[in-house]
Amino acid sequence: MISRTAYIKGAQRALPIVLGYVPIGFAYGVLAGKSGMSEANTLLMSLIVFAGSAQFIAVGLFASGTGGAAVIMTTFVVNLRHMLMAASLAPYLSGWKKRYLALFSYELTDETFALHSSRVAELKESRVEALSLNLTAQISWVVGTVLGIVASSLIGDVKPLGLDYALAAMFIGLLVGQCQNKIRICTAIMSGILATGFYLVGFQQFHIILATVLAATLGLGLEQWIKR
Question: Kindly report the CA angle at 135 between 35 and 71, in degrees rounded to 5?
């Protein structure tokens, strides 16, 4: 009974991600079909790789005729951030068995990491809920992919549908949920200002990363100063 309740709770917590993953997965399915990827490979990538940005990059590389080795290396580099995310959560998963750790890490994404980070102290005692959250997120992505595969022959361009905004909208929703105090709100505002500034001065490729690192550092410094 407890496991069932925890599973339902995890699925409910994943709802903001589901609302974003279905349309984004749909866009991926459509673009993959347009790039010439087979339906089987398109679906298998969502089942095995399960990394939104990496999948879109891979589709673009396949469409341009890039070889398999280059695609694998590129997606590997893009997903290196998952090592940092997993490392930050690892201390709170010390009591989990290895098979659960493997499943958790396999389905960990930027979005699920954001939700787990908001309640990181509870991870050790909420294994079922955490795994349910991850599983629900991946199922929604796969559902979106299947719908995109079906519709790929009917849709010429996904941009008029506004699907390209779904990812940004989902991250905005997750950000709002993280702004639980004044320091986090200030950090979020500062990161937005810095990202815009870096973009305008020419850092089009790294403006978000630079803004995130600087704003997070300033926020941490401010939090430590207030505590002292």
Answer: 30
Cβ partners under 8 Å of residue 35, min gap 6: 59, 60, 62, 63
- Token code pair at residue 187: 């950090």
Could you report the per-residue pLDDT of 176-197, keeping only the tens digit for each? 767 778 888 888 888 889 989 9
Q: The tokens of 138 are what?
A: 């991946």
Question: Cα separations (Å) of 138 from 17, 25, 145?
Answer: 10, 10, 10
Pairs from 178-186 (Cβ < 8 Å, separation ≥ 24): 178/114, 178/117, 178/118, 180/118, 183/219, 183/222, 183/223, 183/226, 184/219, 186/219, 186/222
Strands (E), 15-102: none
Cα(120)–Cα(104) distance, integer angstroms: 14
List the single range of 26-35, 202-211, 213-222 with lowest mean pLDDT.
202-211
H and E: helices and strands count for the chain: 12, 0
Residues 6+ apart with CB under 8 A from 104: 93, 96, 130, 131, 134
At residue 212, the pLDDT reads: 79
- For residue 103, pLDDT beyond 70: yes
> What confidence category does residue 138 fall into, taking pLDDT thresholds of 50, 70 and 90?
very high
